[in-house]
Design goal:
Elements: H1 2-15, E1 23-28, E2 34-39, H2 43-46, H3 54-73, H4 87-141, E3 203-214, E4 223-227, E5 240-244, E6 250-256, H5 259-264, E7 269-285, E8 288-293, E9 298-303, E10 308-314, E11 335-339, E12 342-347, E13 355-361, E14 368-377, E15 383-387, E16 390-394, E17 401-409, E18 414-423, E19 429-435, E20 440-445, E21 448-456
Antiparallel strand pairs: 1-2, 3-21, 4-5, 5-6, 6-7, 7-8, 8-9, 9-10, 11-12, 12-13, 13-14, 15-16, 16-17, 17-18, 19-20, 20-21
This protein binds calcium ion.
Length: 462
């Protein structure tokens, strides 16, 4: 009988709400003897709202939340314990969570690719540092050439040495290898009445950077944006095109009706390129996109209206995939652009040992019409652009206040150092090109789509 009574009490304790609140306490009394206390709330207390241990309650809540998350990931019932939410809320949250997971995975993959690229860049820089150290040692061991009095340089073309460009020490002693740009600087002509904003003149100055749009995600850290100076229907002359170039499978070409739509981020056209693209050196001309195919020296002409590849040709001996990039890296081996004189490619070859080679291309067939080999080391400059057949190089991609430090004229095959101020507003300029349609510089600076107004001098009579 006693056993039956005891079992009934135990059953009540285990089944009832009171089980959560029954407690056993053990301690010593003053005489050192063990004392056990077993507490069970009275029926009146049991009916009161539970005021449990806040830490335990917090743990319960976190456990409940974790259960919901695990359940959602497993596709099970996402409803938390004791939750008042309807069963449909979790089901609605599931696609959102999946989308978030996909996005995080995509960004992780992009970052992984970027990490690999940066590691390669670090290795390249270490090699270049070693190469420069050896070059320095070699130069130190050589005897200094006899000093000659410095003659003030005249900017007049008639006064220039026909053999080598005046004021350019890089050309003075033949060209066994490269020479860094440390020449005497030719003063840029001050703006005067000869300024000509529509003609094909020398670059006088570059304006402040004007920001048009910031990229939405990591894929837009580097990129290229373009406008066709001779647009072909169905696309109008105001159409702006953009490619985000991070990733291993760059194929999307976004088209915006005009600058305003670009600023708002509303593309009206998205084209998927048949072959993936490499480098930020793409350009637009006469209704075609010109770009370097990934992992190759192949140039591609993609017809925007027909949406197919219209021409494909290798650029002879051109480095690609990080062989001869600009100083910022990023597979900028082949840089295509368009100016008043047509389509150009700026790159380097093993034969040129990393020096910039300029080639004028046939816009229809992509054949090289003529090439110039300069003494400008491609890896020593941040980027370059061509205006009226003159190549200009930018010294730094990161310095807020840098300079355009060199100009090479394909008309005369001569180069000279200059110093035209240029600003990198966002500290990582991955693309700089002359845009003939607006007669401005277009650039892509650390997620930002930027343009610069230009002041060009009147073309001098030859
Ligand atoms: Ca460029």
């Amino acid at each position: 009988m006693f056993l039956l009574l005891l079992l009934s009490i135990c059953g009540l304790l285990l089944r009832g709400d009171a089980q959560d609140r029954a407690s056993l306490w053990r301690g010593n009394d003053r005489s050192g003897r063990c004392q056990y206390t077993f507490t069970v709330p009275s029926p009146a207390e049991t009916s009161c709202p539970l005021a449990g241990n806040p830490e335990v309650e917090g743990l319960k809540a976190r456990l409940s939340l974790l259960e919901v998350m695990v359940s959602q990931l497993n596709g099970g019932d996402p409803q938390p314990r004791g939750s008042q939410q309807g069963a449909g809320a979790g089901a609605r949250a599931q696609p959102d969570l999946q989308e978030m997971l996909n996005r995080v995975t995509r960004e992780r993959n992009l970052l992984q690719g970027e990490k690999e690229r940066l590691e390669k860049e670090v290795k390249g820089l270490q090699m270049r540092t070693e190469e420069m150290r050896r070059e320095t040692e070699r130069l130190r061991s050589r005897q200094c050439p006899p000093q000659t009095p410095v003659v003030p340089h005249s900017p007049s073309h008639q006064d220039r040495d026909p053999i080598r460009p005046a004021g350019d020490s890089a050309w003075q002693y033949g060209a066994p290898g490269f020479q860094e740009l440390k020449a005497e600087v030719t003063e840029v002509p001050a703006p005067n009445g000869n300024e000509d904003k529509t003609g094909c003149g020398e670059l006088i100055s570059v304006g402040e950077p004007i920001t048009h749009r910031k990229a939405d995600n990591i894929a837009g850290k580097y990129g290229v944006w373009m406008q066709d100076p001779e647009a072909v229907l169905p696309y109008g002359p105001d159409m702006i095109w953009r490619i985000d170039t991070i990733g291993t499978d760059v194929r999307q070409l976004f088209g915006y009706d005009d600058m305003e739509q670009l600023s708002k981020g509303f593309p009206s056209k998205v084209l998927l390129l048949p072959d993936p693209l490499e480098s930020t050196g793409a350009t637009l001309y006469r209704g075609s996109l010109y770009y370097q195919r990934r992992l190759s020296r192949s140039l591609i002409r993609y017809d925007l209206a027909a949406e197919h590849i219209a021409a494909r040709r290798e650029l002879p001996h051109a480095g690609f995939h990080g062989q001869f990039p600009y100083s910022w890296g990023g597979y900028t081996d082949i840089d295509l652009s368009v100016d008043e004189k047509g389509l150009w490619a700026v790159y380097s070859t093993s034969k040129a040992q990393g020096a910039i080679v300029i080639s004028q291309l046939d816009p229809h067939s992509l054949e090289v019409k003529r090439s110039w080999e300069t003494n400008i080391r491609k890896a020593s400059v941040a980027n370059s652009f061509i205006i009226c057949g003159k190549l200009y190089t930018v010294a730094s991609y990161a310095a807020p206040n840098t300079v355009i430090n060199y100009v090479f004229d394909t008309e005369t095959s001569q180069g000279e150092a200059v110093s035209i101020p240029f600003k990198n507003k966002y500290g990582y300029n991955s693309m700089i090109d002359y845009n003939l349609a607006q007669r401005k510089l277009f650039s892509w600076d650390n997620f930002h789509i930027v343009s610069y107004d230009l002041r060009l001098g009147r073309q001098q009579a030859n």
